[in-house]
Here is the input.
Amino acid sequence: MPSVVWTRPALTALERHRQFLAETDPNLAVKAIQKIVEVGESLQTYPQRGALVEQTPGLRKLIVTFGKVGFVLHDAILNDEVLILQIYHGRQQRPT
Here is the structure.
């Protein structure tokens, strides 16, 4: 079973999303972060979840449903690790 590794950019994005949501609703921020981490960690069991990003070989995207828009995790499988590379808000510009 592969291990899930959260990269520094992904952790920075996670904290940025938490801070943004906490400004209006601290409880919502906690729930959003819990959901993102739960979905990310589920890649340990199901590393092939999500869709391939056509323009970037090896890059996958996984939708995190939360609220109206949710979040998108970008990940890649490298040997026996799943690297969480970045976390985007659903409306944020990102590689498709």
